[in-house]
Structures are given as C-alpha cells and as structure tokens.
Amino acid sequence: MNFKTLKLPIYKSINHEIHYAMSFIGGGMEIISFKYLYKALIGYMTSNMIFGINSLAEGDFDFSSFYHILIIVIWMLLGAGHQIIANRCSYHPKSPMHGYAIAMTTSTFILFLFIFIGQYMFGHGLLGETPTLSVMPLVTIGLLFMYIQNFIIKNGGTAYPTTTSVVTTVYVLMITRLAGSFNRNKTALEQRASLSEGIHYVMVLIHFFAGAYITIKLSEHYQFNSLYLVFFVLLFLTLKVWREHSVLRNDFKKKTA
C-alpha cells in the first residue's frame, strides 16, 4: 500500500496528520473515561483537581473522595518516571519520525489493552456506581496512553505551542491568531501566518469534537469497544509513520553512502 497517496489536502504534512489524529483519538478517550470511569478526564489534571477538591470538601473521606486526587498523583509519577528514563538512557533516532513511530506503536498496544480490560470489567459488572481501588489499574493504563499522546502532540513537528489536544490555551490562541490575520499593522506575510496558525487550532478543535461525538454515540451500543474506531485510526497512522521513517532513513543512508 502506498501510504503517501492517502493524504487529504486539508493536511499540510504528516506532522499535522499526527496532531489532528491525536486530537480525534484524545476526544474519544476523554469521553469514554468521563462516562465510564467516574468523570475521570484522564488528560486534564485541572478538572480532576476540581472534582477532587469538591469531593474532599463534602467531608466523606472514602476512596471516592481521593479518587481524582490519586489520578493526579499517578500522572505526576508518570511524568517523573519519564524524566528519569530520559536522563539515564541515551536515544539516537534514525530519522525525524523514528521517535514518533516508537511512541505511537507503544500507544497502539496500550489503547488495545485499555479497550479490552475496560470492556471486560464493564461486561462482568466490575464498574460499580462509585470508584474502587480495583478500577485504578485500568485508569493507570488510560493515563499512560494520554501521557504518551500529549508527548506526541507536543513534539509532533507542527511548531505550534500546544502540549495537549484541547485546553483553554487552544481556544485563546485560535481567537488571537484569527483576529491577528485582520490586523492591518501586520505585513501580508504575518497576516497569512497568523491565519494559518488560527486555522490549525480550528482543525484541532474539530477533530477533538468529532472524536468525542462519534465515540459517545457508538458507546451507547458498544461501551468501551466503541474505542476501536480511534484504535484503527491510530493503527493506520502508526503504519504510515513507520513508512515515512523508513523512507527518511533510506534517504539518509544514500546520502552518506
């Protein structure tokens, strides 16, 4: 299959494809975690902090009260673990796409594991009305996936200052850049650049919304299995990134031969 021919004109580069696909996938993951994992927005720690503070303020010091706080703690441990590994291990990518290919391959396996375990727990009545310690392995798997997703988006090569798929910053940047494209004090080149960046954020929001909406509708019948749509999107793009890596690596070998 020639993956190079499978690119829509709205995507400027494979880096943009990665960013938008991850936004689409992130929307699906967030909506499923919110629906089935007790409103755990596993990619947004501010939301979990608010839920956690509210639960603690209600005075019921049970596991449910600490559930969202524990999610934040696990997220920070993942970040700390990543930094320790990065500091101790040397990594020499064989192409600009090599790191993304490895990260996306890892994400593909993690997402499959999340879907499989989540559907099993749902089907066997292991997801009760309130969170328990038994749900934390599934939540941790989801957090690991979202952490890698954030890393891929942040380092995805679009050169735009976003670290996650959709946060408040994206809305602010979108409006600011779109408004900047009409600023007569800017040169025509600066206006076009501002418009291009503004449209990029619009694309991020559209893909996130589409991923969340389609997945939540599918979940009415398929629960966690509704995530297989975003799984196959991720799998397809991962294969495409590996293909791009292979081409870039071979080109580099020819130049240095």
TrEMBL record:
<dbReference type="InterPro" id="IPR010699">
    <property type="entry name" value="DUF1275"/>
</dbReference>
<feature type="transmembrane region" description="Helical">
    <location>
        <begin position="66"/>
        <end position="85"/>
    </location>
</feature>
<feature type="transmembrane region" description="Helical">
    <location>
        <begin position="222"/>
        <end position="242"/>
    </location>
</feature>
<dbReference type="Pfam" id="PF06912">
    <property type="entry name" value="DUF1275"/>
</dbReference>
<feature type="transmembrane region" description="Helical">
    <location>
        <begin position="20"/>
        <end position="38"/>
    </location>
</feature>
<feature type="transmembrane region" description="Helical">
    <location>
        <begin position="159"/>
        <end position="179"/>
    </location>
</feature>
<feature type="transmembrane region" description="Helical">
    <location>
        <begin position="134"/>
        <end position="153"/>
    </location>
</feature>
<keyword id="KW-0472">Membrane</keyword>
<keyword id="KW-1133">Transmembrane helix</keyword>
<keyword id="KW-0812">Transmembrane</keyword>
<protein>
    <submittedName>
        <fullName>DUF1275 domain-containing protein</fullName>
    </submittedName>
</protein>
<feature type="transmembrane region" description="Helical">
    <location>
        <begin position="199"/>
        <end position="216"/>
    </location>
</feature>
<feature type="transmembrane region" description="Helical">
    <location>
        <begin position="97"/>
        <end position="122"/>
    </location>
</feature>
